[in-house]
Specification:
Chain lengths: 163, 190
Amino acid sequence: MQNNNDKERQFIEMLDQYKSVIAKVCCIYVSPNADFDDLYQETVINLWNGFDKFRGEAKISTWIYRAAINTCITWIRRNKKHSNNETLDTEMPLIAEESSKLIDYRRLKTLISRLSPLEKAIVTLWLDEKSYDEIATITGLSHSNVAVKLHRIKEKMSKMTDL
Amino acid sequence: MIDLDEIKSEWLALKVENASLQQKNKELTRRLVDARIANNQQKLAKNYRIGYMGLCFPLLAWLLYQLIHPSVYLCIIYSVYGIILGLFDLWFMDFIKKADYTTISTINALEHASKVVIYQNWATIASIIACIGVLALFFYEMAQLGADNIIWGGVIGGVIGGIIGTRKCIDNHRLARRMLSELRNIEEEE
């Protein structure tokens, strides 16, 4: 059994290494009924609870993406008063290097807010350059279903009128 | 029209605010080591520890019998009601806790979350209906003893509470059903 101090140190190292993954996923799911801090905290707790059981059968990034997405999606599901009219002013700890990129990021965030929770998961993984196989592993969909869904999501987003 | 491939490269270029997240990670981990925080799943599961109380209903029924002498029939029904609800609550507590969101797929996580809501609502509706039956019997026996105030207070409170609670459950149940049906459509597309 791991010494608690070792576990704590290793866990913090892991969190620091993958904090951007967790933060980006939480940012996608932020809504009036799900603020960033709640989603981030909930994800970290789930990772802690699963930390001892993680044996490296999957890549650690896959494990973390899965935990973050599942946490956010089930939070949204249980607190189902969230509306699609998200404010762009929701505070999130993301910064962009230039203000024009921040504007595009906000546009993207608003587009993504119009997708279903599962579609948000798929598009987030695609934006982070995950392969179709990895997306299928994390979501539980088949490879072909991921391809079809991603194609439909991209079409849907492309057709959305400007904000 | 939005060029998604362009947005993708900009998404990858976005950076997170390091200092505040590193601090948050340290604080959260400390609190986890000290067992000072729990996730929603754990908090929800804890609510159902009350199932242990349900298993004590036979004892409560015996005490009731000693104090106000209702019929043995009422005591048995009251005990059975408590045991069934208690066993369900303890089973449900286990059901809620067993989903490990770090290992199951997103589809399974969604399904589990929806089932939690549906079972919660079924249990609430069933327990309200059963409770009404038990209370009706109780008030009937109180009527035999001439305790009219108890009866009227209970009937009015029960009707109002039952209507409000049942409506809320039906709404939650409808949302959860919709989510499960979306999940089934996804499985059919496979």
